Amino acid sequence: MRVLSDNGRPDVAYTIATQKTYPSWGYMIENGATTIWELWNGNTADPAMNSHNHLMLVGDLAVWFYEYLAGIKCDPQHPGFKHIIFQPVPVGDLTHAQASYKSIHGLIESKWQIENGHWHMNITVPVNTTATVYIPTSDPDQVRESERPVGEAESVIFVGVENKAAVFGVQSGKYKFTAPFVKK
To answer: In the chain, which end has fewer C-beta atoms inside a 10 angstrom radius, N or C?
Structure first.
């Protein structure tokens, strides 16, 4: 899932996560699975070569949900969520996602939705941490935080535009970003 997303194909990862035909997690569920199979074709494979309770695939899917759909990533330069990267990947017909994580610094939250052509994103950055926030719009002047132009928002610094996203640095606190939505 992460390899697909990192190489420009989050759409394929999303399809694998949501479709009900082979190969996918939905296929397993449609065929009576209550846990993840080791093989995508676990219902037709040699039973001696197939675990029906295989955690490896679930781990990648769970990480993908947090890091890509909700967009909560640990910055490798600042381990332990001392600096958080909020970079959700809106994909397919998905119009909203939310997740939270209890880090050693406090609660990290990300909630976004696409509504009426606008991106709405609420985040929580714990005390004594910082974050980089990616807003999927190519026009940073259209981004608002708590209904104010982002340039007037406290603790928000414009960093630049990267891959059709306006990038901002923020201090600890709660933020409500909105912007016209640009699908990649």
So the answer is: C
Q: Which of 131, 170, 165 is nearest to 153 (CA)?
A: 170
The pLDDT tens digits for 9-27 are 999 999 988 899 988 888 8
Rounded mean pLDDT of 48-73? 79
- State the pLDDT at residue 57: 57
Helix (H) or strand (E) holding 11: helix 10-18
pTM for the predicted model, two decimal places: 0.88
Residue 102 structure tokens: 């209890």
Residue ranges of domains in the chain: 2-61, 72-180
Helical (H) or strand (E) element with 62:
helix 55-64
Q: Where are the beta strands (DSSP E) in 34-182?
A: 72-74, 83-86, 96-103, 106-115, 118-125, 130-135, 144-145, 148-149, 156-162, 165-170, 173-180
- Of 101, 124, 126, residue with least CA distance to 176: 124
CATH dotted code for 72-180: 2.60.420.10
Average pLDDT over residues 31-37: 81
Q: CA neighbours within 13 Å on the CB side: how many for 9?
A: 9
CA distances 106 to 24, 78, 126, Å, are 35, 15, 5
**Does the pLDDT of residue 165 top 60, yes or no?**
yes
Q: Which residues pair with 114 in a beta bridge?
A: 119
